[in-house]
Amino acid sequence: MTSPSTPTPTPTPLANAAISIAVLGGGPAGTTTALGLVRLGYAVTLFTAPRRFDALEGVSDRVAESLRQNGLSATRRTLAQPSPRRVMWRNQVNAPNHESLIFRPDFDAALLQDARAAGVRVVEAQVGQWTKLEPSDLRGKIAVDFSTDGKDAQFFADFVVEARGRAAPLPPSRIRGPETVSLLQYWRPRYAAAEVLPRSAVQSFADGWAWVAVAANARRYLQLTFDVASIDLPDKAQLGDFCRSRLETLSFATEFIANAEPEGPPYARNCTSILADDIANDYSLRVGDAAVAGDPLSGNGIFLALSSALQAPAVINTLLHYPERAALAKSFHTQRLTGLFYRFARIGRDFYALEDQWPDAPFWRTRRHWPDTEPLHRRVTPDTVTIAQCPVINHDEIIEAEVVITPDNPLGIWRMDNIELSPMLKTIQHANNDGQAQQELVKLLDCPPQRAAQLLLRMRQQGWVK
């Protein structure tokens, strides 16, 4: 498949308005995808149902910035001010970073507010199955079953975005990590606190690790994470006592449960890392946890969901309007999400490997070696840098372009500072010295000598040229 000599114009909003897209799931990935599609002029209906449990989560500054860049202003306002996050790992205490705590019901409601404000049609309903229709059926390509207000109904769409997270029907997993379960329990204070500083903490123990947090309203959220294969969990009726006994052995947790009592039974949720199979085809696309779900240890769940969804509108736009590039678009989505999966899996692996107090405990022994032994970052030298044709995002579509491939960026880098990188790299590689390289860059880019010198320095710092 060859790259077009000139990018094909993006379809106008008027042309897209007749195409119906159903987004199943109103979390970060589904909402971000819906917003991007509406901006391209598509008719988007987002189906969403309330979460089955409350949750407090911590997000990084990167999430706040991503929300800002994608116009999710109401959602961004639900983020609390950054608060300290303490970590006890290897029996050492430190506070390497901070996180903003979010109450998921408020966060999710704000996502829908942003979606409606952008022109997304939001239907609060429970989605069942969706079925690919025969070509002779003129109602649409796909029938989506849903129920609302106790009534069953169907919606007919031309394309479906599966964004129901871990609740989505899962095709055979391409890759599945060690089976992991987290037990979440809420605790409430026995008496009103005058003032509460929101904060969180992480602590390891022989069978797993704990995340504990307190919100501004003094409600505490305590989560214990275990290895399914090696932990002997009691019956549901005894889970509360089981969690309390574990929490009382953890120094960080005892600070959070002091003068507090459990509020309801623990809630068990699957936290296994998963990369789904068939995440892109001609009539549907998976995003967020429905496609790639990471280990909760990194605290990057929402960031991973947003990252997987940002490219989705361009992929879908290409599938719907440029069928000759359908294979390219599906390959792009699959490769990018696979890369995200391994990146976050290796981050978790390296952090697990730091904990060496229980080297033979099944939880730690399994996770310090999964998913592989490949380093998170690889050394880049000029002889490891190549140029190849790969799929890239060009505005609102996927095309094939010449990119620079490095050990740290195996999917390729197309542009640097909005300048195509491969012509610059070729120019520098063919120059005899820095002076000639700068002169050739000035001609190529029609830029001042100082700018050419800066670009040359950056490429040398990255290890791309000598």
Structure description:
The protein has 3 domains: 13-83 and 96-173 and 274-366, FAD/NAD(P)-binding domain (3-Layer(bba) Sandwich); 180-270, D-Amino Acid Oxidase, Chain A, domain 2 (2-Layer Sandwich), CATH 3.30.9.100; 382-461, no CATH class. The chain has helices spanning 13-16, 28-39, 61-69, 73-76, 104-118, 239-247, 251-257, 301-310, 312-321, 326-354, 362-367, 421-430, 434-445, 449-461; strands at residues 20-24, 43-48, 56-59, 83-89, 92-103, 121-124, 126-132, 142-148, 151-157, 159-162, 173-176, 180-189, 199-205, 208-214, 220-227, 260-262, 267-270, 274-276, 284-286, 292-293, 386-394, 397-406, 409-413, 415-416, 419-420. The radius of gyration is 25 Å and the shape is globular. Strand 14 (208-214) and strand 15 form a beta hairpin. The strands form 6 sheets. Strands 3, 4, 5, 12, 13, 14, 15, 16 and 17 form a 9-stranded mixed beta sheet that branches. It has a 5-stranded parallel beta sheet with strand order 6-2-1-10-19, covered by helices on one side. A 3-stranded antiparallel beta sheet has the order 7-8-9, with no helix packed on it. The chain starts with 12 loop residues before the first helix and ends in a 5-residue tail after the last helix. The protein has 466 residues and is of the alpha+beta class. The chain contains 14 helices and 25 strands.
Question: Brief overview, please?
Answer:
With about 475 residues, this protein is an alpha+beta fold. It has 14 helices and 25 strands. It is about 30% helix and about 30% strand.
